[in-house]
Write a structure and sequence with these properties.
116 residues, alpha+beta, two-stranded antiparallel sheet, Nuclease HARBI1
């Protein structure tokens, strides 16, 4: 879990994180694969988007009371995830700072639930 949290919450590549934590890049990769697959397998239980009128109304109420942002049911928070530049179409992954990245855009709900 420490490997996964370090990778997801920080910056860096698998090899560097492996060196920092005393494991190989392959171990970081396998750990990430197992943990992320486990999270995805359970995601329908705890990642929810409001679908009924009552759920939408409650999301708007929470957004108004907590953040003074009426009618919002969620916000988008983007982050770049550093990657190695792919051989094919690699230039399409270059961000404004000249680094190869993926742009992740999760939707954060007022109840702190996440939907992608």
């Amino acid at each position: 879990m420490k490997i996964c949290l370090r990778y997801l919450c920080g910056s860096g590549y698998q090899q560097g994180i492996g060196q920092e934590l005393g494991v190989s890049q392959a171990t970081v990769s396998r750990t990430m694969d197992r943990v992320v697959k486990s999270i995805v397998a359970q995601s329908n239980e705890w990642i929810k988007f409001p679908t009924t009128k009552d759920e939408l109304r409650e999301a708007k109420r929470i957004s108004q009371s907590m953040y003074k942002f009426p009618t919002a049911i969620g916000v988008i928070d983007c982050t770049y995830i550093g990657i190695l530049k792919p051989n094919r179409h690699g230039d399409e992954y270059i961000n404004r700072k000249g680094k190869p990245t993926l742009n992740d855009k999760p939707l954060v709900m007022p109840e702190r639930c996440v939907d992608k």
